[in-house]
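go over whats below:
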Amino acid sequence: MTSMLPEPVTDTGIDTASSPTNPQKRKRLFLVLGAVVAKIAFGYAWYQHSYASHFVSTDNAYTAAETAQVTPTVAGIVREVYVADTAQVNAGDIVVVLDDTDAKLALDQAEAELGRALRRVRGYVASDANLAAKVIAARADLERTKVELNRRQALADSGSVSTEELTKAVNAFDTAKANFAAAEAAREANAVFIAGTTEENNPEVTLMRAKRDQARVNLERTIIRAPVTGVVARRSVQVGQQLQAGSPILSIVPLANVHVDANFKEGQLAKVQIGQRVEIESDLYGSNVKYHGVVIGLSGGTGSTFATIPAQNATGNWIKVVQRLPVRIELDKNELAERPLQIGLSMTATIDTRSKENTNGQHKKVLSKLN
């Protein structure tokens, strides 16, 4: 039977632990490793100081736009609806039509009132000529009765005129005087309606014309048009619905004027100024698509300041929270037209704080170049 014993170890005569080459080799490796680490650290420090430190970035950024809310300016029943959600409309396109029966009747009534006012003013002018003639006749009658009264008074002293005739002359003169005063008063009262005016600018005619124009405008407003070019959103109007003036019926998002609201930490804003250039990435298109823009404004306060229930920092228990300030970024119109963005999309914005030549009101020139 063969015995299962371990094979004897052969002694080579070399002591590896005492080999003079291993410590030197390890030392060289450590030196090389240290040099590589130092070079990487120096390169990173140089990159941070000379390049990366001039950029601030945030992914707390979202697209936004000045959305137009469409509301009727007159009440009425919806007769036709021409758009639906996601529809593209141009400024001036008809979106909703209201029933115009009442508006047409109101316009006809206003036209009639205007015609009646014109006739009334013409009557004032005609009456003025007639009343002027009456004043002349009353004045002549007054002068005649006065002469007769003076003659009878002269004859009364000699007894040639009876007391009865003298009394009649006095009464006739008083009556003529009253008639003359009444004629003058009537003319003056009529002249008030036309004094310093013509038929066209008479206050009564002007008032009725304004009412006619208002009725005409109300009729035109039964046709509701898009105020801006964009995409229809949040449409809530239906045919047959009774609308009140000012009630929102739909919104229009002007996608051609989308901007980015980037919320930077307060510690990132020391070098951020209006007019600096921005590079933006959209989660919609990915990192392969770059948008370019410019800073056009910084908010007047942090988001927490304008919150419904703002933070109460003047309390006993206080914890410092880093605040964020919204920065508004205008996008390149050409890039936006090539790849449209809807509002509310997530973006990543990086501001180049070295572009100081565009500050101090020069952002308008940058915008003109971008456009």
